[in-house]
Design a protein that fits this description.
It contains 20 helices and eight strands. It is of the alpha/beta class. It folds into three domains: about 190 residues, no CATH class; about 190 residues, von Willebrand factor, type A domain (Rossmann fold), CATH 3.40.50; about 30 residues, no CATH class. The strands form two sheets. The protein has a six-stranded mixed sheet. Strand 6, helix 18 and strand 7 form a beta-alpha-beta unit. The two termini are about 55 Å apart. About 5% of the residues have low confidence.
Length: about 450
């Protein structure tokens, strides 16, 4: 009885992974099923590693897999945390339930019917109704009540005891409670399992759509992990798209020459490889207090995506432009970011001075501007009523391919108070409102389709 139960649980777990946005193909599921006979289910580490090795192909999904595994399996396990203990506990509960007159086979059938009934319900209903409401729906369903399986028998037995009128038998209310006490925990457990993946996915979507400046300290760390994961997925998607674009038109000469042994019949086609130039990237981030959260995540995303570009140079500024490219070469991104935000170069003066920074950039770093260069600026364009340095900004725009300005402020606040967004926006390829990570990743994705 254990092996079919374990198989069913593992298939349910693959669905949980899919709900959490982890890609699991039928081939990977088959690989896992073939490996199961070799697995010692009392060894939690071995069981977990087997699932991870066969089901997860993208290493960025490992943190999500771990969360799903802990929620789905380990919270149900016994004190020693083993799956075998969980199954033993389940068998003990089943034995205690036999006072209702059901055999082990009927109990097994009852559980299967509960599972099938829950599978038949719309996803929206499962997510919005309480376990008690779903139990009532099930008990009122004529198809369930009249079925010949374990659940139908259980209903009949409970009602028979309730209507017998014997002093030694429970009344109808007690019979109904006994029935609910046995079925309800099963429904609660199944609903919790079903919702594991959805809960993780909803949490991620909540963070990805949340304004970055609203993130709480605990959420910032979660967000950093998400940026790494989604940044890698974005990189993989863009790389695959570029690989498909590389295939050019039919290479007639090579195709004909290679198929001469077949009488010139083109059994195998050859295509020209299209050369796709990787763009150069310059990123300038305002790290003043009003926008530094956005700049942190942009720099982290840039580090993740840097292999998509032929050259990446990164700069940070408040009132002085400083190149920080070497920091990301010498240390991991988290240490580099911490180093940037404690550097004395960024404490010179008060508030952002965009004009001064653009002047410094063109005087000291203009060699980074070529016709292959795309410049991305992160900042709110609040210049504290100082010289905008428009001449330097225009000279930069004329020397590069594109200038994109990502402004974390709401559009209706542009040009309000000391904001000069339109002064710069007129000379940009595009000035775009970007105030959450999904906006940011969507912009990067479109950057490679332009």
């Amino acid at each position: 009885m254990e092996h079919p139960r374990i198989t069913r649980k593992i298939l349910e777990f693959t669905r949980v992974l899919k709900d959490a946005d982890v890609t699991v193909s039928p081939t990977e599921t088959i690989d896992l099923m073939n490996a199961l006979p070799l697995v010692d289910f009392t060894d939690r580490v071995q069981f977990r590693q087997t699932l991870a090795t066969t089901l997860v192909k993208d290493y960025t999904d490992i943190p999500v897999f771990n969360r799903c595994f802990e929620e789905f399996f380990e919270k149900k396990a016994g004190k020693d945390g083993s799956l075998e203990t969980a199954l033993a506990d389940l068998r003990g509960r089943e034995s205690a339930q036999q006072d209702l007159g059901l055999s082990p086979e009927e109990l097994e059938s009852m559980q299967d019917e509960i599972d099938r009934y829950l599978e038949s319900l719309p996803e929206e209903l499962l997510l919005t109704r309480s376990p008690r409401e779903i139990l009532n729906l099930m008990l009122e369903d004529p198809a369930v009540a009249t079925s010949g399986g374990g659940l139908g028998m259980m209903l009949l037995n409970a009602r028979a005891r309730a209507s017998s009128g014997s002093a030694n038998e429970p009344d109808e209310g007690e019979g109904g409670n006994r029935l609910a006490n046995i079925i309800l925990p099963r429904i609660k457990r199944r609903l919790r399992e079903r919702n594991v993946g959805n809960a993780i996915h909803k949490r991620e979507q909540y963070l990805l759509n949340r304004f970055l400046y609203q993130l709480k300290p605990a959420e910032v760390q979660e967000m950093r992990e998400l940026v790494k994961r989604f940044g890698q997925k974005l990189k993989n998607r863009i790389s695959l798209r570029k690989k498909r674009m590389k295939r050019g038109g039919l290479d007639v000469k090579r195709t004909f020459r290679s198929n001469l042994p077949h009488g010139g019949i083109p059994f195998k086609l050859y295509f020209r490889n299209r050369r796709i130039d990787r763009p150069q990237l310059v990123v300038m981030c305002d790290i003043s207090s009003s926008v530094n959260q956005y700049s942190r995540f942009m720099l982290l995303l840039t580090y993740t995506l840097q292999s998509l570009f032929s050259k990446v140079r990164t700069f940070a500024f408040i009132s002085r432009m400083v190149e920080i490219t070497p920091l990301f070469m010498e240390m991991n991104p988290e240490r580099a970011l911490n180093s940037i935000f404690t550097d004395t170069d960024f404490t010179y003066g008060w508030g952002s001075n965009y004009g001064r920074c653009f002047d410094i950039f063109m005087n000291e770093y203009s060699d980074s501007c070529t016709r292959k260069t795309t410049v991305i600026i992160i900042g709110d364009a609040r210049n504290n009523n100082q010289d905008p340095g428009l001449d330097a900004f225009i000279r930069m725009k004329e020397r590069v391919r594109n200038v994109y300005w990502l402004n974390p402020e709401k559009r209706h606040l542009w040009d309000w108070s000391d904001s000069i967004a339109s002064v710069y926006g007129t000379h940009c390829t595009e000035m775009k409102e970007v105030n959450n990570f999904l906006d940011l990743s969507e912009f990067i994705d479109k950057l490679f389709t332009k």
